[in-house]
Amino acid sequence: MGNKGLLIVISGPSGAGKGTLCKTLLSRNDKLKLSVSCTTRQPRNGEVHGVNYFFVTHENFKEMIDKDELLEYAQVYDNFYGTPKSFVDKNLNEGYDVILEIDIQGALKIKEKYPEAVFIFILPPSMEELKNRIKKRGSETEESLLKRFRCAFQEINYISRYNYVVTNDVLDEAVKKLECIIIAEKCRVDRIKQSDIFTQLQEGLKNE
Ligand code: 5GP
Question: Is the minimum distance from the CB of 81 to ligand 1 under 6 angstroms?
Fold first, then answer.
């Protein structure tokens, strides 16, 4: 039933743990794919091109915009980030659920193009913990850390534009909540074609 996959948009302040949550979620579900974004930001220690991001130059990024290859893009802090269109459309059409881990500006643009997508906001357990997590990453300068921290306060104002909020306190529990959201969303009547329900119910009768 309903062959097309679910588009899942995950946002939340830097340091809320979206990356770890998504990684764990993906490792438990092979019908789920993560969209790898393009960015003009420099790779952090250990980040791999094509896995964490496609690290591109400003020229490359502009070219992708001009060729309409991005589903959405935004300037976040001092860099550009964008979602490659072809990967998302191809996987949704093949029936995979696709996660976009993007900022609020991007999420709002996706909402216009894909109103049927599911929007989930990830919260840290506290602002203190958020600060510790960003610091622990060790990749930010003091200025960039402050910028990300200030932005976190502003971002939280946008929670009401999302469908769900999940606090990432205990990782396993937060992942379970995300899994439950995905399962529930797939059971929504307005996502299922009535004709598919009848086809499924009649399948058994054909063999009698
Ligand atoms: P970071 O530099 O920490 O990897 O990411 C900074 C912010 O950019 C995060 O909030 C992340 O969700 C967001 N981001 C990553 N990829 C994209 C994208 O393709 N589009 C948009 N709009 N935001 C993105």
Answer: yes
The answer, yes or no, to whether any atom of ligand 1 lies below 6 A from the CB of 168, is no
101 touches 18 (CB < 8 A): yes
Look at the chain and count its residues: 208
* Cα–chain center distance at 147: 22
CA-CA distance, 205 to 208, in Å (whole number)? 5
pTM (whole model) above 0.85? yes
- Cα of 203 to ligand 1 centre, how many Å? 45
| Residue showing tokens 């534009």 | 161
The phi, psi pair for 197, rounded to 5°, reads: -65, -45
DSSP 45-113: TT--BTTTBEE--HHHHHHHHHTT-EEEEEEETTEEEEEEHHHHHHHHHTT-EEEEE--HHHHHHHHHH
C-alpha dist (Å) from residue 100 to 36, 52, 118, 203: 8, 12, 10, 35
The CB of 15 under 6 Å from ligand 1? The reply is: no
pLDDT in tens, 106-156: 999 999 999 999 999 999 988 888 888 888 777 678 888 888 888 888 888
Q: What would the pLDDT profile of 68-87 be if each residue is shown by its tens digit?
A: 999 999 998 889 999 999 99
Output the CA–CA distances (angstroms, integers) from residue 61 to 20, 57, 99, 177, 194, in the order listed: 26, 6, 21, 35, 42
CATH fold of 7-35+97-206, please?
Rossmann fold (3.40.50)
Helix (H) or strand (E) holding 196: helix 194-206
